Amino acid sequence: MNRAGVPSEEFICSGHSACPGCGALLVLRYALKVLGKNTIVTSPACCFTAVAGMFPDTCMKVPLLYNAFETTAASASGIEAALRIKGKKEDTYVLAFAGDGGTADIGIQAISGAIESGHDIIYVCYDNEAYMNTGIQSSSQTPLGATTTTNPVGKEDGWKVTPKKNMMDIVAAHNVKYAATVNPSYPIDFIKKIEKTKKVKGFSYIHAYAFCPTGWRYPPELGLEIGRLATETGIFPLYEIDNGKYNINYKKKTKDVIEYYKLQGRFKHLSDEFVKDVQNYVNREWQKLLLKEECTNK
Ligand SMILES: Cc1ncc(C[n+]2csc(CCOP(=O)(O)OP(=O)(O)O)c2C)c(N)n1
Ligand code: SF4
C-alpha cells in the first residue's frame, strides 16, 4: 500500500502496447490491484484485448478468457457457475472487462440476463466513448458534439447529437445489487468502490471513465487533468447505487463544460450555442441525480 492508500502490488506487466496515456489500461490496473491474484478476467474484442491481452500473449498476471464481442457477461456467468460447482467461488473473483461498445451496445442483453440471474460477477465497463480499436467509430456512449470517424465534421448534423445512453440507469432498472461510476483521476474513490464489489454477493456494475488520447485527440499527458474536469464539470459524476440507494461521492460541480471541451480535438468544431445546450443538458442531469439521492435516502 502506498501513502495515498493505493495497493502497491501490480498485476499488469510492462510490454503491453496500449497508447501512452491510455485510461483503459489504468482502469484495469487499479481494478486488479484491489481484486488481486485470485481473479479470472474475461474480455471481448476491444482495445484491451488488442493491445494487452490478445491470445496467446497477455500482459496480466491473472488468467484471461478471451470471449466473443457480445458475450462478456455470459462468459463471466459461465466462469462463475463453474467455480461455484467446483466449490471455488468463495476465493475467486470473476472480472468481466469490456469497452463501451461491448457493454452498452452489442453486449447489453447478456448483462441484462446476468443481473437477472444473480450471477456473482464484477462487471467493469471502461468507457472511452467510441469503438476505438476498430478506428474510432461512434458508440451509444459517444458524448454530445464529439466527432468520430462515423460522425465526421462537415456534414449537416455531422457530429454526435444524441446524449449518452445512461448505463447506470439501465442497470439500476434491473435492481442491480451494486453499481458505481469510477474515474482513474480519483484513485482513492476508485479503489474504495472496487473494494465494495468484493463483498457483494451478486452482480456489481462499474462504469469507468477511460480517457483516450488517440480517439479524443489531446496530448497524452493531459489525461488525468481531463479526467478531473469530467467530474468537476458534472459530465462524469462520481456516484454509487447501493441496493437502490444513490450516493454522490463528489459534489463539487464547480466548472463549466467548456473547460472540458476545449482541451479535446473531438470537440474543437462546436459552436458556442451547441456548447451552451450541452451545459444545460449536464445541469439538468445533475439536478436529476441530486433528486435521486434525496429520494432514495428518505
Ligand atoms: C460480433 C462482432 N462484431 C464486430 C466485431 C468487430 N469489433 C471488434 S472490437 C470492436 C469495437 C470495440 O469497441 P469497444 O467495445 O468500445 O472497445 P474499444 O475498442 O473502444 O476498447 C468491433 C466493432 C467483432 N469482433 N464481433
Ligand atoms: S485507442 Fe484509446 S483506449 Fe485504445 S489503447 Fe489507445 S488510448 Fe487506449
TrEMBL record:
Picking any one GO molecular function of the record gives: 3-methyl-2-oxobutanoate dehydrogenase (ferredoxin) activity
A GO biological process held by the record: sulfur compound biosynthetic process
What sections of the protein cross the membrane? Answer: none
Enzyme Commission number: 1.2.7.7
**CDD domains (UniProt xref):** TPP_PFOR_porB_like (cd03376)
Q: Name one Pfam family in it.
A: TPP_enzyme_C
Sequence ranges assigned to domain Thiamine pyrophosphate enzyme TPP-binding in this UniProt record = 63-207
What are the alphabetically sorted keywords of the record?
A: Oxidoreductase
- What sections of the sequence does the record tag as coiled-coil? none
InterPro entries for this protein: PorB-like, THDP-binding, TPP_enzyme_TPP-bd
Under Gene3D superfamilies, the record lists:
3.40.50.970
What is the annotated quaternary arrangement, including any partners?
A: Heterotetramer of one alpha, one beta, one delta and one gamma chain.
Q: What name has this protein been given in UniProt?
A: Ketoisovalerate oxidoreductase subunit VorB
